[in-house]
Amino acid sequence: MARTTFHDVDDGALLDQVRDAKDQLFKLRFQLATGQLTNYARIGQMRKDIARLETELRAREIAAAEAIEKENA
User: Which long-range contacts (CB under 8 A, 24 or more apart) does 55-60 make?
Assistant: First the structure.
């Protein structure tokens, strides 16, 4: 997964990217356990990508909650 900003991506696509990244991380860990992994840094990269994606999802969740709260005020 390339480093990009996720601001332009819709929520559904963002969730798909999180699921795909977690699946890829699982596969990397499996390769590590079986001795097939050659690029160990890739595990750390995937973990950071997942964190970036989840941070964007959380920011959107907070923004939506604040918008609802603002409407009700």
Answer: 56/6, 56/7, 56/14, 57/11, 57/14, 57/15, 57/18, 60/11, 60/14
